Amino acid sequence: MGISFTVLSSGSTGNVTVVRNGETTLMIDAGLSAKRIDELLSMREVTGEEIDGILVTHEHSDHIKGLGAMARKYDLPIYANTNTWAAIEKGVGKIQEHNKIIMETGQYRDFGSMRVESFAISHDAAEPVGYNFYDGKEKLCVATDLGYVSEKVKLAISDADVLVLEANHDIELLRMGRYPWNTKRRILGDMGHLSNDAAGAALSEILTGRTKRTYLAHLSRDHNMMDLARMSVRAAMEDLGCFFKDGEFKLCDTYYDRPTPWDKVSQS
């Protein structure tokens, strides 16, 4: 059957993604209320009972708001590294011991035929990670909330068939925006969020022809727009000599208020 996925919600108000194959359905983060997550799941004809576990990227509230409630409601295992567990434990309420699963950074775990691998990213959290999903020759990568794309991250996200990558802000919109300077400095820093230009630069280095689609994720509602993100990312790629003909590569949108359509990683 292969891997398919939907980004249920993406942005500073809450982040949830669902990845599945014929055997397993996993959720990445639970950054909205359990009620809202259930609503978004129903829009994609999934129920909470079908979820087999939740993978946590890091402890910020827009990634764990509904984590405890979802785990208790559906008796779901939660997968996170040791430092992230220490950071989230007080905020998610009581979790059954059998649902507290340690998955250290850099480890992989098999869920039937789907293999999940975590990798370290740069963000102002205890030990943030991105995730790769493999099924046979298919590879899906999810990498958001990263201040910059290190060489190790480039290696981890390269050769994905589909990539979900942060394009958080337009640098000039952020600099002129209403946030206090300390917040702007945090977002612009190496442990903050990836700009449109930085996302485009990273893509220009890692694309080999295998990656057919990249979903631009975690867009700021104050300092970015979908059209601007797509235009700026593509312009940054082209400035660095990375050009694609129509049909060879596509930049796709994600939304804070509705899910993306189900997308099959392999469309051949």
TrEMBL record:
Keywords associated with the record: Hydrolase
A Pfam short name: Lactamase_B_2
UniProt GO molecular function: hydrolase activity
Taxonomic superkingdom: Bacteria
Keyword Metal-binding included in the entry's annotation: no
Domain Metallo-beta-lactamase: 13-191
Keyword ATP-binding included in the entry's annotation: no
Catalyzed reactions: 3',5'-cyclic UMP + H2O = UMP + H(+); 3',5'-cyclic CMP + H2O = CMP + H(+)
Function, in words: Counteracts the endogenous Pycsar antiviral defense system. Phosphodiesterase that enables metal-dependent hydrolysis of host cyclic nucleotide Pycsar defense signals such as cCMP and cUMP.
Entry protein name: Metallohydrolase
